[in-house]
């Protein structure tokens, strides 16, 4: 009698420690080899796009905190940039610098979280995560000092930022900028040559360059595949053209490259912070903007390089106090469409690693 | 799967673990000891100053959730008298937009963050509960309050400097925190 096997369907999630939220992967397995993957999203859907249509432009800023809750500051930034582009508002110089400082601090915090939990998925249970959280906690302290909260900042306003930084902020940030490279060295010394990390990630979950471009991937996922595309360089928004930094690029597109690109991006963010701290001018932080802003009728797409990729806001105004249409282009949802191409033919354990290396945030995918 | 340079990773990991044996702990034993929060903290509390409030309802208009309920009547001196000022902490997201928008500085965020209740109804704060009797207003969008509050204890300075800068951990005795239960 011939032995016959049948494909087996496994649900990873919605309550699974490695899904980083409420996310379900419907995996078809042949033995332990992945044959098909179907991501099921929507468990965290709150209808933010629709809610935003009933609220004024300023009232929508706290909602953008709830998209990618690990990088709330960049969500604020992308949204206010889009509205400012729509209403043609000039932002004071100091506010621009403060925004850049916050965005780069946020990028470091988000990448620390991404790398830490990627290693957690690899089986390095909690140890690297806690080393990285130690540094992230220092950044959260600074955010708390500036805007009063540690997760949902609600700091940026249309036309500037809500408040100027307190006097003890700059010395603390300077100390952080000075000591952060030694911590990154420590992580790299611990991790980059670790044989378990190399064995589990080198050559695993390869996203080829052409596939990455075709699915419109962005952020570290795209750059690890060898495409030098960073909106900070390609379409400089705010004042990013004044800073000198490099865009780290991987060459294979495997999980190790995605990890490596994030590690290098943190170094570049520290470089931008150093330059921004040197150039930081004095002056106002908030341009006078009417409380009930009525942008001229029209549409706008504003995008920034968020830690996870290209975060865009598409706004349509009908000259009323609320946006007529509020659409979010989340980076991780679009990156996630590549998952199927990356994991077919690999084992279940590699699926978890590949998914972890994409650094998804479910608040943003389901919104 | 092949292992290269087997053993280096373990040695490095052990070296870092060993190094951490000599570092001061960065964690705080939370209910017993607490860090000093930011002077601009948006705690889970709102403070309403009835003598400054004119009942203009700018805060209610600025709230993204439509969470602030105000009812007024015209008083003897042709002013508004606030009959009802109520908000539901269960729906509030403590974004601080109401505090920023108040033209008379009659509203402030509070410092406290331990506001859990056993019943949903207890989360609705009435006019009397919002008054600044036992509350500490925070300096969010209120620079004059901010200047008077103690400095935030920052992790970046470590334990040693945290003590030197007058930013000591506030220790509260354990027995005080044991509540009554349900």
Explain what you see:
The complex is a heterodimer of chains A (367) and B (182). With 367 residues, chain A is an alpha+beta fold. Chain A has 15 helices and 8 strands. Chain A has 2 domains: 1-45, no CATH class; 46-359, Cytochrome-c3 Hydrogenase, chain B (Orthogonal Bundle). With 182 residues, chain B is an alpha+beta fold. Chain B has helices at residues 8-20, 58-62, 97-101, 143-148, 158-164, 174-177; strands at residues 33-34, 46-48, 68-74, 80-88, 107-109, 124-125, 170-171. In chain B, the strands form 3 sheets. In chain B, strands 3-4-6 form a 3-stranded antiparallel beta sheet. Chain B is elongated and about 85 Å long. Chain A binds chain B through residues 55, 58-63, 127, 131, 134, 137-138, 141-142, 144-149, 152, 154, 162-163, 166, 168, 172, 175-176, 186, 189-190, 193-199, 291, and chain B through 1-9, 12-13, 16, 26, 37-42, 62-64, 93-97, 100-101, 109, 138, 140-141, 146, 151-152, 154-157.
CATH topology value of the domain at 46-146 in chain B: Alpha-Beta Plaits
Q: Please report which band the strand proportion of chain B falls in: under 5%, 5-15%, 15-25%, 25-35%, 35-45% or over 45%.
A: 15-25%
Averaged pLDDT of chain B, please? Answer: 78
CATH class of the domain at 46-146 in chain B: Alpha Beta
CATH superfamily of the largest domain in chain A: Cytochrome-c3 Hydrogenase, chain B
Strand numbers in spatial order across the main sheet of chain B = 3-4-6
Give, in spatial order, the strands making up the sheet with the most strands of chain A: 1-2-3
Q: Kindly identify the CATH topology of the largest domain in chain A.
A: Cytochrome-c3 Hydrogenase, chain B
Q: Largest beta sheet of chain A, briefly?
A: 3 strands, antiparallel
Summarize the structure.
The complex is a heterodimer of chains A (about 375) and B (about 180). Chain A is an alpha+beta fold and about 375 residues long. Chain A is built from 15 helices and 8 strands.
């Amino acid at each position: 009698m011939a032995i016959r096997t049948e494909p087996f369907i496994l649900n990873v999630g919605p309550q699974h420690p490695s899904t980083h939220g409420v996310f379900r992967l419907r995996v078809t397995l042949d033995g332990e080899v992945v044959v098909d993957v179907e991501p099921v999203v929507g468990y965290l859907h709150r209808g933010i796009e629709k809610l935003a249509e009933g609220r004024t432009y300023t009232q929508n800023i706290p909602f953008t905190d709830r998209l990618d809750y690990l990088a709330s500051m960049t969500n604020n930034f992308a949204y206010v940039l889009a509205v400012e582009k729509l209403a043609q508002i000039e932002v004071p110089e100091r506010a621009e610098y403060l925004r850049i400082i916050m965005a780069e601090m946020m990028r470091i915090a988000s990448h620390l979280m991404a790398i830490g939990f990627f290693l957690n998925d690899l089986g390095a249970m909690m140890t690297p995560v806690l080393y990285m959280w130690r540094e992230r906690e220092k950044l959260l302290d600074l955010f708390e000092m500036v805007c009063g909260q540690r997760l949902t900042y609600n700091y940026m306003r249309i036309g500037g930022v809500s408040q100027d930084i307190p006097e003890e902020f700059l010395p603390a940030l300077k100390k952080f900028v000075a000591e952060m490279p030694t911590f990154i060295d420590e992580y790299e010394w611990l991790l980059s040559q670790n044989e378990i990390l190399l064995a589990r990630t080198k050559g695993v979950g390869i996203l080829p360059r052409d596939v990455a471009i075709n699915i419109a991937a962005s952020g570290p996922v795209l750059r690890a595949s060898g495409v030098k595309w960073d909106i900070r360089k390609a379409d400089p928004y705010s004042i990013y053209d004044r800073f000198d930094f490099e865009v780290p690029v991987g060459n294979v597109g495997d999980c190790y490259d995605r990890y490596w690109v994030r590690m290098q991006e943190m170094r570049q963010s520290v470089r931008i912070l150093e330059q921004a701290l040197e150039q930081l001018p004095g002056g106002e932080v908030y341009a006078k903007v009417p409380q009930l802003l009525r942008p001229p009728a029209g549409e706008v797409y504003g995008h920034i390089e968020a830690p996870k990729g290209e975060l865009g806001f598409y706004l349509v105004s009908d000259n009323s106090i609320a946006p007529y249409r509020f659409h979010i282009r989340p980076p991780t949802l679009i990156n996630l469409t590549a998952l199927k191409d990356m994991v077919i033919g690999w084992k279940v354990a590699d699926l978890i690693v590949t998914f972890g290396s994409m650094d998804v945030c479910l608040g943003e995918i389901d919104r | 799967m092949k292992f290269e340079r087997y053993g280096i990773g373990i040695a490095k990991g052990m070296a870092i673990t060993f190094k951490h044996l000599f570092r001061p702990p960065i964690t705080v034993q939370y209910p017993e000891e607490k860090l000093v929060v930011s002077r601009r903290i948006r705690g889970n509390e709102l403070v309403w100053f009835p003598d400054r409030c004119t009942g203009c309802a700018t805060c209610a208009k600025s709230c993204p959730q439509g969470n602030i309920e105000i009812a007024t009547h015209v008083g003897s001196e042709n002013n508004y008298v606030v009959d009802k000022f109520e908000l539901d902490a269960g729906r509030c997201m403590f974004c601080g937009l109401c505090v920023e928008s108040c033209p008379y500085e009659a509203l402030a965020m509070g410092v406290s963050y331990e506001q859990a209740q056993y019943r949903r109804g207890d989360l609705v704060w009435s006019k009397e509960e919002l008054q600044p009797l036992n509350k500490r207003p925070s300096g969010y969008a209120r620079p004059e309050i901010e200047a008077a509050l103690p400095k935030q204890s920052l992790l970046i300075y470590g334990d040693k400097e945290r003590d030197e800068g007058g930013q000591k951990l506030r220790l509260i005795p354990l027995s005080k925190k044991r509540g009554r239960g349900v």
